[in-house]
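Why does residue order matter? Because the sequence determines the fold. Keep that principle in mind as you read this record.
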Amino acid sequence: MKNAIVDPTVHLHTQVVSAHGQQYGENVHYVPVVAEELRQLIVEYPCCLLKNNQTGQFGLHALLGFTPGENLFLSGEQWCANAIPMHIQRQPFMVGRVGERNEMTNQQKSLLTIDMNSNRVKDSSYNKGDGKRLFDDKGTPTDYLKTMNQLVTTLAQGIIRTESFIKALVEHDLIEAIQVGVTFTGGEKHKFDGLYVINEANLSSLDEAILVEFHRNGYLQACHLLSASMSNLQKLIVLKNEQLSAN
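Structure:
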């Protein structure tokens, strides 16, 4: 990965492809999300907590498939869902921080960077309609670049708040592991481990003072949204069965 600070003197003619597809690294079976986007995402995806086997830390994710490399929402160059996780939308941009790690990111304390090795990044010779310029001929940021700058800033802020949310879940023993059994077309059965959800019994047993704090911080709503989203596992099964039938 070669990250470069977005600069009109360097990227005046740089374009970014806005299409979707495996060639852009979107053939993944889960993607990190932040708590603030759960309200939009739960209409499409099952969202849960996954544990990093190396660090032991939990992360919030949307499930896109059942096996590595399988994105059931991806069909050619189309992402077949009304809501797309911000982590996917922001590609190939990232935010470079200015200041301490635990400080809240804003556009005054961040720099927009771009992965120049991404297949999405093209030069002036790219002439397809899905290429988005970062700057106009005068070096003024385009509306597309302004939108991406706001998106990565929002995402960076959301990552910090989501880490605090997960820390609170761990502190109050609100995370539990589940095993999901699935039967696909043809009778093929699979069991999936490593998924973590909200322990609703422990959530309902929280002291009133803690519940008030959870409500004030938006954690209570996020817990309920997470729990509700798991009903979309059935949607994933339907998508998988449709794929199996087509093959």
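The two ends are 35 Å apart (CA to CA).
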